[in-house]
Write a structure and sequence with these properties.
Layout lengths: L7 H7 L7 H12 L4 H11 L3 H10 L11 E6 L2 H5 L2 H12 L13 E6 L11 E3 L2 E3 L7 H8 L2
Parallel strand pairs: 1-2
Antiparallel strand pairs: 1-3, 3-4
The protein binds FE2/S2 (inorganic) cluster.
Length: 154
């Protein structure tokens, strides 16, 4: 089978390590690895002679960049207006409790789930809504969360 993994060095070479190409370089590294690790950011900083703080400034400015590995299943919790009014906070709390996530943690220790908040998922009449991978679940209550998440645990 053909190996299509490209190293960070190859990515830097492809973009000639030019400072103006920092964003495409970060995107390419994230495409390869799923996220931007501390060591990759440090390496890019050294190779491109760009201060590490400047790279973190870029990475944290754009929502597309991830600093943590993603779980196998992505849970998007809608925090749009309709869902907010329908108590999306209690849904989030139920998800975080069920997955036993610590404060500030997005991904479970077993790498199964990553939780993120998103703006309107486009089905406000079903609020409050969450999306797991490509499936939408609506008209939720905190009690409905364990049953839904347990289906994805296997
Ligand atoms: S606000 Fe949640 S789906 Fe629209």
């Amino acid at each position: 089978m053909e190996q299509d993994f490209i190293s960070v060095d190859e990515i830097l070479q492809e973009y000639e390590g030019k400072k103006g190409n920092l964003i495409p370089i970060l995107q390419a590294v994230q495409r390869q690895k799923g996220y931007l690790s501390k060591s990759d950011i440090r390496y890019i900083s050294e190779k491109m002679h760009i201060p590490i703080a400047e790279i973190y400034g870029v990475v944290t400015f754009y929502a597309m960049f991830r600093l943590e590995p993603q779980g196998e299943h992505i849970i998007k919790i809608c925090k749009g207006t309709a869902c907010h009014v329908a108590d999306a906070d209690s849904i989030k709390e139920a998800v975080v409790d069920y997955l036993k996530l610590e404060e500030g943690e997005q991904t479970t220790a077993d790498g199964k789930f990553t939780v993120m908040e998103v703006a309107c998922l486009g089905c406000c009449s079903l609020s409050p809504v969450i999306m797991i991978d490509q499936q939408t679940f609506g008209k939720l209550t905190p009690n409905s969360i364990p049953g839904i998440l347990s289906r994805f645990k296997k």
